[in-house]
Write a structure and sequence with these properties.
about 350 residues, mainly beta, five-stranded antiparallel sheet, 3 helices
Length: about 350
């Protein structure tokens, strides 16, 4: 312990979101974000991996603030109250609204700073609903399927709906129900493995992650098995690297905007094991990990992730993206919208 802020050797560091409407919420967030750190340092010491113990001490000159004055406390309470009031007003009069669109361009085009795509948006959803989290997967010659979340504000839950696309990404059908387990579902992440198409949707309220398989003949999704139990995963995203399957997500019950959790398995069906270093990262600047869950690259350009909107590549120059705008609940008229997939 030292008298200067962040002086000495920093063993662990994290970045969390500020709750400017509540001092108590900020304290809770700090505790939840750092509670694992002493155990992590101990594990690193036992594994001879605590090289940071020999690091050069921080040279920071940041001051340590003492007890605030009365004027400072008045300013703090006023700013906190204003932030709380703004949060309440926005919760009453505004609501997020998403939609999904299709772009008939090579995905590498999104790497160009001056690229502004022509987007074919799906027809607006019915009142008090929005569509988000699009994913596309080829399921046969000249056939693709588009899965996305359709959220209903009345029931306060989302379901997974589906649309057929042709080779060029043009819609061949209207949206229809695809997966609904009776709880809120979103983020229908799609993967193909050994000729089978699988979906790994988010269903945090069930405190599990389940794998669904597409029955091509009956054109319906069937649950294969829960691959993770007793964990409220947010945006579970699966990737195979070498001979190891990796699943990364956040936890709706534990700082979902800041903490990244990893699971791994030797086979898609498991058994899946949690990474011993979970949470492997606590950084609100880079988590949730699966926002814009796929990355793109072009020759001479490093891989980039789209972190502001959901999008999915359907192959042959078709990109499906999501847009967000905010609307008045009373009038359902758009106040503003942005496409941020490039």
């Amino acid at each position: 312990l030292v008298d200067r802020l962040d002086a000495g050797i920093i063993l662990q560091k994290c970045h969390i979101r500020t709750r400017n409407w509540s001092h108590a919420a900020n304290l809770d967030a700090i505790v939840w974000a750092t509670v694992h750190m002493p155990a992590r340092v101990c594990r690193d010491i036992l594994a001879n991996g605590a090289r940071y113990l020999e690091a050069t001490p921080s040279s920071t000159q940041a001051p340590v603030f003492r007890a605030p004055s009365d004027l400072q406390m008045v300013r703090f309470l006023f700013k906190t109250w204003m932030a709380w009031a703004k949060r309440q007003v926005e919760g009453i009069f505004f609501a997020e609204d998403w939609n999904v669109g299709i772009v008939h361009e090579p995905v590498q085009a999104f790497l160009r700073p001056d690229f502004r795509p022509t987007i074919q948006w799906l027809a607006d959803a019915k009142a008090n609903t929005f569509r988000a989290d699009p994913f596309v997967q080829r399921i046969g010659p000249g056939e693709k399927t588009l899965l996305l979340e359709e959220f209903d504000y009345a029931s306060e839950r989302g379901v997974i709906v589906e649309m057929d696309l042709d080779e060029n990404g043009t819609a061949k059908s209207s949206l229809r129900p695809a997966i609904d387990n009776g709880f809120h579902m979103s983020y229908p992440y799609l993967i193909e493995h050994e000729g089978e198409v699988y979906c790994v949707p988010e269903s945090g309220r069930t405190r599990s992650v389940s794998l669904y398989a597409l029955d091509r003949r009956q054109r319906r999704w069937r649950v294969v098995a829960p691959i993770i139990k007793d964990f409220a995963a947010v945006d579970p995203t699966i990737l195979r690297h070498g001979n190891v399957w990796w699943l990364w997500c956040s936890n709706t019950e534990d700082e979902s905007s800041s903490k990244l959790f990893l699971w791994y398995a030797s086979a898609l069906l498991g058994p899946w094991k949690p990474h011993p270093g979970n949470p492997v990262k606590v950084d609100v600047r880079r988590v949730p990990p699966a926002a814009g869950s796929r990355s793109i690259a072009s020759p001479g350009c490093p891989s980039r992730s789209i972190a502001k909107s959901r999008w999915s590549i359907s192959s042959r120059g078709t990109v499906v993206i999501g847009r967000e705008f905010i609307r008045w609940r009373a009038t359902a008229g758009s106040r503003c919208w942005t496409v941020s997939a490039w």
